[in-house]
Amino acid sequence: MRGADQGYVNQGDGFDILIGLVNTGEAEATSGRFRINTNGIDLGLPDGATIIEEVISIGGVRGLSFTAPSFDTSLVIDIDLIQRPVDANTGLPAITGDTSFQVTLAVTSLDLKLHFEAPRVLSHVVLPDGREISWCSAYSIRNVLDL
After folding, report:
1. Domain range enclosing 128
2. What is the three-class DSSP state of 40?
3. CA-closest candidate to residue 105, choices 29, 23, 39
4. According to the model, what pLDDT value does residue 7 have?
């Protein structure tokens, strides 16, 4: 996955899911077909599709690009291997591991409305040798979107 940080993506940002097939056996095998289902949420796929199918060759990786919706939500994207590769020696479906996966993301807004200020503090210290040191501290944090 690219473009999402620890399961979070910002509204309207793009992100990619990478899907690949690895042959761990010795026989040649054909491609496999995956179904990707966004569960009804428009993630910027062509023609507003929410279910697509992709053929992926053994050893290949396919990157799928999505755009997060413009509202806060939780996404679950289902990825299912619906056509297993075929073992070239036997003509039978290849033995596979997991055939279903889920990607769960939270779509969030960056509109934080953060504001913090601390009063100005004047400090004065007299050192043992009689020298005096004074300083003033002030703190302010604002929402980066307001700058």
Report:
1. 115-146
2. coil
3. 39
4. 85
Report mean pLDDT in 10-residue bins for the chain, 147 residues. 81 92 87 95 93 92 93 94 92 86 88 59 73 69 51
Query: What's the pTM value of the predicted model, to 2 decimals?
Result: 0.71
Question: What one-letter code names the amino acid at 1?
Answer: M
Q: What count of other Cβ atoms lies within 10 Å of the Cβ of residue 81?
A: 19
Q: Amino acid identity, residue 56?
A: I
Residue 103 sits at the vertex; the CA angle it makes with 72 and 95, to the nearest 5 degrees, is 165
Residue 94, Cβ density class (10 Å: 0-12 exposed, 13-18 middle, ≥19 buried): buried
> Residue 59 to residues 70, 81, 105, 120, 134: CA-CA distances in angstroms?
35, 15, 27, 62, 67
Q: Are residues 34 and 85 in the same domain?
A: yes
Residue 145: phi, psi to the nearest 5?
A: -75, -20
SS3 83: strand
| CATH code (residue 34) | 2.60.40.10
3-state secondary structure of 144: helix
- 């400090």: which residue's tokens? 123
